[in-house]
């Protein structure tokens, strides 16, 4: 109930208001009455009060002065003046102290009832607003970890925004980053992501990911202030603060302990990339990219040598060349086309020989040497293959006398993988397509693209489209649409789910587009389908 007091120098008025008006009907309790403003002011200072009904003219402290004093200390208190004076001067003074109403004596109980009802409505509205604000504050506090993680991901993926806005957001989210400290970025990538995560249920995946993130955080905090977050499945990013000197050994210890914890304690082989030391928040994105590149351009990819340090910036042309080479080779290897493999390799060897210095040349050659490992691992080939022992391949490569011998070795190994793929092309194609189907089934609510699906199976988007149509007889987009519409039909059978909620639940952002698409594929609108489904269930 709301707490109220009555202040009037006439005892008859005070007692009459208490006895002859039903305060409880308005959820109000009269907790005290006073004969002057001074006593009332002291009472309010000692007790919580929501509403004050006060006379204007009183001894010691009049009603106007009482209202001013209350407004200064307790701005939420509501004040109703009750006075026998209808002088305009008093009315103006009452308005100046923001009294919610002004009632003249003798008091009309109907007028008082109307006035109190209006004041209670105001207090209820303000009370609800405060509750809503408190709920929003509570929700915001609960969402802080999610907001922080989103901000971290933005920092490494997007270009550096306005420095003032960036610092304001960092301060608001209570993130321990600034422009004065030195930092380093570590990228921790789980090897064999698909076989590690996709055999688990969603709950198990989330728990495993959380455990990995906690392990990374615990290791980092043993050495310095550490921020750790998951950038994507199987990749965790750490930002460590560094002292100005002798930080290299610290980073090596952090990386070795991470490798020990994850590989030894959790049986998760990892690759760890380390950026150079940097200062300035605008350099976080570049440092993340350098740490990621350090993994992709390391010389030895053996599990025992999982730590890679970014020692130099990769030339953009080299980076682009490696990406293009990977797409071409993955495609012709997957198809088992040895003639195409030979042609692509010859072109690559010529370009590498003529355009790159020795270090970059060897970097690219080892990159080519180990590229088929991903295919052999992901499709779980049971036949005996040289790629079943990565260390042996590296040993054979290191025993080559010159660049030409390296070319011959790589070509021989590629022919072996291509022949293997050719012998089992049908099985491999179905493995790839089944993986794509599974991804669509699990992620149909998301805005997934063909490029995303192709990247997951290490193929070009064009090749995946051709392969999918060849195996299934339908396009990827049609398959995704049909999957979504089948899910929509199940939801439409429930009359309590709104049509626009069905639209959002199956991955469409526009209800009108969803309705048009549904009618195009089914011949009827979603609402018509719902009526038919409900009628069928009632029979």
Keywords summarizing the entry:
five-stranded parallel beta sheet; DNA-binding; 539 residues; DNA-binding transcription factor activity; alpha/beta; 4 domains; six-stranded mixed beta sheet; phosphoprotein; Alpha-Beta Plaits; Rossmann fold; sequence-specific DNA binding; elongated; 61% helix
Describe this structure in words.
The protein is of the alpha/beta class and 539 residues long. The protein folds into four domains: 2-129, Response regulator (Rossmann fold, 3-Layer(aba) Sandwich); 159-309, 2-Layer Sandwich (Alpha-Beta Plaits); 316-423; 429-538, Orthogonal Bundle (Arc Repressor Mutant, subunit A), CATH 1.10.10. The chain is 61% helix and 11% strand. It contains 23 helices and eleven strands. It has helices at residues 11-19, 37-46, 63-73, 88-96, 109-157, 163-172, 193-197, 202-221, 248-265, 284-296, 316-335, 338-355, 358-370, 372-378, 390-398, 403-423, 425-443, 450-456, 461-472, 476-492, 499-505, 511-522, 526-538; strands at residues 2-7, 28-34, 51-54, 78-83, 101-104, 182-190, 226-232, 235-242, 270-274, 278-279, 307-309. The strands form two sheets. Strands 6, 7, 8, 9, 10 and 11 form a six-stranded mixed beta sheet that branches. Helix 1 links the parallel strand 1 and strand 2. Helix 2 runs parallel beside helix 3 (63-73) and helix 11 packs parallel to helix 16. It is elongated. InterPro entries: CdaR_GGDEF, CheY-like_superfamily, Homeodomain-like_sf, HTH_AraC, HTH_AraC-typ_CS, Sig_transdc_resp-reg_receiver, Tscrpt_reg_AraC-type_HTH. Residues 3-120 form the Response regulatory domain. This is Stage 0 sporulation protein A homolog.
